[in-house]
Design brief:
Layout lengths: L1 E10 L5 E12 L2 E5 L3 H16 L4 E10 L5 E10 L6 H6 L2 H4 L3 E2 L2 E3 L5 E4 L1
Antiparallel strand pairs: 1-2, 1-7, 1-8, 2-3, 4-5, 6-7
Length: about 120
């Protein structure tokens, strides 16, 4: 099973930064599950992810391809493949959704999606 190990950082004494895995996120039976010691924060995050993944703007994986325009020039076309929780690349789309994770807090920790990892357990 693939999981996102969500990493949070908070500032400690004397400018020290404390890194901690604040939650595990995975998909089970087509639904997003967030596990953490802080159950209230996990419940809020799970509710927010489920709302956005199912009802609002879906998470997507950005792709590009080279095409030729009407004058014969090579043009790079950018597009997005939307992912729902039942899709196989949903965790990759969720992990790379920088707009979703921007200024996201998990308790006292600020979430950094760029250092969070997708692991196979």
């Amino acid at each position: 099973m693939k999981k996102i190990k969500l990493v949070g950082i908070k500032k400690g004494w004397f400018g020290r930064k404390i890194k901690k895995i604040v939650a595990d996120i995975y998909v089970q039976d087509g639904k997003v599950v967030v596990e953490s010691k802080d159950r209230e924060e996990a419940r809020k995050l799970q509710k927010e992810i489920n709302y956005r993944a199912v009802q609002a703007i879906p998470f997507g994986i950005r792709k590009c391809r080279e095409i030729k325009d009407e004058k014969g020039r090579n043009v790079t076309e950018l597009y997005q493949i939307n992912q729902r929780p039942s899709d196989p690349q949903f965790l990759e789309a969720l992990a790379s959704a920088s707009g979703f994770w921007h200024d996201k807090k998990f308790g006292d920790y600020e979430v950094y999606e760029t250092i969070s990892k997708i692991v196979e357990e």
